[in-house]
Amino acid sequence: MASKRQLIEVDETTATRLRERADAQGISVAEVVAGLTALAESPVEISPEELAALDRQWAAIQSGEEGVVPHDQVARWLETWGTPDYKPFPMK
Description:
92 residues; mainly alpha; 4 helices
């Protein structure tokens, strides 16, 4: 059964980013949007232990402690998201 198509307007920057992500994954823009929608609706499950660890890490950051990974290294990695250069974060 074919689904009914709808036109959804987005700004040019968003359209470009959606096309780039679709091209990088070899899928259509509609599939990218469907996947992002499903992801947004998925509940995030986190154990009490994981939540406590995140709370401790956040408290350390707020108190001025430097993180385990330098900010500039994380920022460079984040810039690769959605590009052909993306790779999982290199954990030491």
